[in-house]
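[job 0412] stage=complex_fold ligand=iron/sulfur cluster status=START
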Amino acid sequence: MNVRKVAQPWWETKQLSEMTQDEWESLCDGCGKCCLVKIQDAQTERIYFTDVACTLLDCNTGRCKNYANRQQYVPDCVKLSNDNLEDLEWMPPDCAYRRLYEHKPLLAWHPLVTGNPNSTNDYGAGVAGMPMVSEEDVSDDELEDHVVTWPLDRVG
Ligand code: SF4
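[job 0412] stage=complex_fold status=DONE, emitting structure tokens
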């Protein structure tokens, strides 16, 4: 029998804390779900997704319109790092960072798995093209009316 050892990809062998900056950035699948406003029930602490998009989200592509300088324009944008992984509870369950943190494999449509940088949207797992409204047009009091389930259902 001919046995060939298959190398495991780096995201399966490295801890999040061991990744280089480039590796860390490449983990983001570009789904854009973290750019939707979430609200939390004060009693149950359950987190709900809304269809209200961050002012910098390009709703057609699902990408940030100014990723490099996003915190300059949106000061409360969470820049995920090893130092704030507790914020992962605000990320969707299919977020690559959250999945690796929870010791789950990347999903089949992740660009690192497919080798296709657009595979998240090709598989219909991102927010691109979904009906959304800008946070500039919605007051805090109206957020409850914008709760939607599709960001959690939309996993490709
Ligand atoms: S939810 Fe996670 S994988 Fe999706 S865009 Fe945000 S950081 Fe990237």
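The longest helix spans residues 21-27.
[job 0412] exit 0
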